[in-house]
Design goal:
By secondary structure, this protein is an all-alpha fold. It has ten helices and no strands. Helix content is 79%, strand content 0%.
Length: 265
């Protein structure tokens, strides 16, 4: 299993980093593909809970978040949210007996997957966006890797056994420390405007966001009664299994830099 995970990572990581470096439509298309697959997986989880999301409305609205972020350079929420609500109103007009829970889960999927992934193109559009985006990926992967190995080696106590029995305090601390080291080593090269303390703050917030994102997706899967969100990535599961941490890390990094970078220039 570990060998399969490493093999998929050896293929996927250069693809993602290469698209981030190229930017433009190459990166946008990759994010759209990830968002589409993630939305399909999310609504499959909803179906496992006996819910009936309005999948076309949710997918179109979710993808609009990503497209709007790229085209409008900051207008993340309203185009995607507006289209999602518009599509839902259309469906509710055609099918007035749709349950409120199905409407709610449709909106949640659109905003949770599409709305959060929209911060990836926004990061790329910042000055020095390619390097910032690559650092965001590296910090997320550092947290996941540190948490995985420290949890397996040192993990004994499980802080959230009912939500995610595989998570341990040792894993959480290990993930945070590895993220901190990654930020302090590469941060001065990528974000020279941020001093060591600000880089440490970015790393800590990113590690907390990454672990929260992982727990949220674990909660969805546990309620749905499935082990993985999908099967697309052998040894890893689905797209949501691999991007769950990044879903929360991306907006944290974006707003952190939008707040601090202008003050440092």
């Amino acid at each position: 299993m570990l060998g399969t995970r490493i093999l998929v990572a050896l293929v996927g990581i250069p693809l993602l980093l290469g698209a981030a470096y190229l930017g433009g439509w190459w990166f946008l298309l990759l994010v759209i593909l990830v968002a589409f697959t993630g939305l399909v997986e999310f609504y499959h989880l909803a179906a496992c809970l006996k819910l009936k999301p309005l999948v076309p409305a949710g997918i179109i609205g979710g993808l609009m978040f990503v497209l709007a972020a790229y085209l409008n350079k900051g207008m993340v929420a309203w185009p995607g949210a507006g289209l999602t609500v518009g599509m839902l109103l259309l469906f509710l007009t055609l099918f007035p007996r749709v349950a409120a829970a199905d409407v709610a889960i449709t909106l949640l999927g659109s905003w949770y997957v599409g709305g959060l992934l929209a911060y990836l193109p926004l990061l790329r559009l910042l000055p020095g966006g390619a390097a910032i985006l690559i650092l965001t990926f590296l910090m997320t992967w550092a947290n996941d890797t540190g948490a995985y190995f420290c949890g397996r080696i040192f993990g004994r106590r499980h802080p959230w056994p009912s939500l995610s029995p595989g998570k341990t305090w040792a894993g959480a601390i290990g993930g945070l420390l590895v993220t901190l080291v990654m930020a302090e080593v590469l941060g001065p090269l990528i974000l020279p405007a941020l001093n060591s303390w600000l880089l440490a703050g970015l790393a800590i917030l990113s590690a907390i966001a990454a672990q929260a994102g992982d727990l949220i997706e674990s909660g969805f899967k546990r309620q749905a009664g499935v082990k993985d969100s999908g099967w697309l990535l052998p040894g890893h599961g689905g797209i949501l299994d691999r991007f769950d941490s990044l879903l929360l890390v991306a907006p944290v990094v974006y707003y952190y830099l939008v707040f601090f970078l202008p003050k440092m220039e």
